[in-house]
Amino acid sequence: MEARDHTQEAGALRSGLIVSAGLCVVELVGGLVTNSLALVTDAVHMFTDVAALALTWFALWMCSRPASPQKTFGYYRAEILAAFVNGVALSVLVIFVLVEAWHRLQAPPSVAGGGMLAIAVAGLAVNAIVAARLHAHQSASLNLRGAYLHVVSDLLGSVGAILAGVIIVTTGWTLADPLASVAIAVLILRSSWKLVGEAVDVLMEGVPAHVDLDALERGLAGVIGVGEVHDLHVWTLTTGRYALSAHVVADGRSTPDTMLNDLTCLCRDRFAIDHVTIQVEAESRRAAEPAH
Asked: Who wins on pLDDT, 67 or 197?
């Protein structure tokens, strides 16, 4: 299996990494100066964005490495591991944000709304640029989607900080700051857990979401020359790359080569499964297989 060309994806990640690192420093300093939890939260989140983008970039490099005698499938799963780590990091971050927001709801501190608003607007502009760069690539892999979700959730953080800043400047109601942080945290948690769930499903070698296993088994059994299908397994190698293994019992109506070609074409054309391993048997060995 040939590795994808990651040149454009790496370029988008590299530019996003540079501007995100710069914004992280600006927001952290600005948040401390203005005493804004929303800005500090956004700065900490931005730091996780920088780490996530760096991890995603590293994973892209890893998965482009060729297969070896020890890693016969190559390093495709590096993308899934990076997505899992990104999702967990986002979830942990939410916990810290919610704890600090709770303390501030009990005793709201003074917040310099004007400075907070100016820095949040700058953060929104930067996050919008990075998100736009990554949007075109986020469907390429779960790994890139994880990085994209980091940036989008930080963009939402900037929006929340802007709204809180406007409220504080116009009304003086400083509770808007921790309330904005809570709203942002909830949105982040929803996206991060979905990402973690998808990554875990791949790591546990679950059936890909687009594959109806019953329909696949019926399709294989319907190929001329196949008398029985058993020990059928389908799993995801990495985003967009799927594998199948199965045993089929030949009934003599077709040659083994023709039957294997038809089975492979069916898997590829109807179910987008491009790595197919099928064992042809003269008689069923289902009874000898371990129970699932």
From this structure: 197
